Amino acid sequence: MIEDVLPDIAESDLEAFFQITHTIYGYDFRDYARASVLRRLGTILKKYGLPDVKALNQRLLKQKEFFETFLSEFTIGTTELFRDPSAWVALRKQALPLFLSTSQIRIWHAGTSTGEEVLSLAILLTEMGLYPRAQIFATDIDQKALQTAPKARYPLRYKRTYQENFQQVLPDVPFSRYAYEEGNELVFDPQLLRNVRFLRHNLVSDEPFSRFEMILCRNVLIYFTPELQDRVIRKFIQALVPGGILMIGTKESLFWCKEAEKKLASVNNLERIYRRQG
Amino acid sequence: MSARPYLWVIGGSAGSFTPLRQALLQVPYDPELTLVLCLHRLRQARFQITDAFLRLRRWHLSEPDDKTPIQGGAIYIAPADYHLLIEKEGYFSLSVEEPVHFSRPSIDVTMFSLIQAGWPRAGGILLSGANKDGAHGLFMMYQAGYFTAVQDPADAEVPHMPNAAIALFTPHQVFPISTLPHLLAQKPIPS
Q: How far separated are the first and last CA of chain B, in Å rounded?
């Protein structure tokens, strides 16, 4: 049970926090949506028994190795296999068929977290016979998540949700084709990751590292201000080949990105799947 | 962004949905008023609640997307499986961080964000419900000087949530559900 917290955070401490994380560690959180930043900080203070953000700042200054732990707590890694099944159905039926005759399908999954969505994607590509031509780049800023994802092993208690989602997306495919139980874990077929590379990448500060036929970035933009959303979506547009697909979270929008109006056409507006024009 | 609308945050879970819907049908449209509904419901219940409320004319009714500007004359329903946060810039943020009191959306989370955003004119209401989510949030709103009201537990189908709030503090108003339309039609003013 998580009890909630309402920390009293001084603006000056917050400013110092932004400076330390940016100038020492290279992570600029200034354009993260403020309400969530305050919540994460409150949770971290409580978890590590720190009285205030000033104390957190001291720890970040003195204990460099603490930063990775901090970053892992600060970023929100919630994900699941085929989260929002209807969105994946739309991807399968309306977007992926566009690549049936494409020789090379380069895919960027930004904000991959513990990897369940990469597996979701790999499963769909496999079922459609597209996997051999796909090259998936799965990125995250959280190093700990990037160590977890390649294992493709999850606590067995997730099985029920994952299997239910799976059956909604692929009703005719047995879940056991891709996943099995081993001890207390749900293990996915390692073959699903043979064309996947996990890389560390910071959407805020790093440029795209290639051009892509498809970009998936779901429930990452929600933690950004409208200004940062605009910047990141423009990066995505630039990184997409003409005709390339962008999929964002079902409650995220392109509302704050003017360029998206010109450059992206809707494939399925409800499920937030778009296609780069021209 | 223009002046912030008056804003009610209304929390509830089991036993709140039907009476709240009945009450909303009676609340006269007010372009300066915003209602934010944070109700516990099933994870994948996308659209169903908005459909049920469709009979409400004039009021702009939606499950807001992330970064939707908060407007007057609108009723917003926290989307299933997301926390709904209020930002001081005048828009919503969504979050998929861990559930609070097993709940996402969590009423506490929305209420805390309103306090931290320093929303100028707002009030909090807690209805029938089966856990204590919202009690702490409403108490914090009370302490921050916002108007607070709780459904009379004797009147609530599931009194746990109102009782949890009343155990923490004495809200400004404890009301029978029949007076909810009247309460909502008032603009919340600082206590």
A: 26
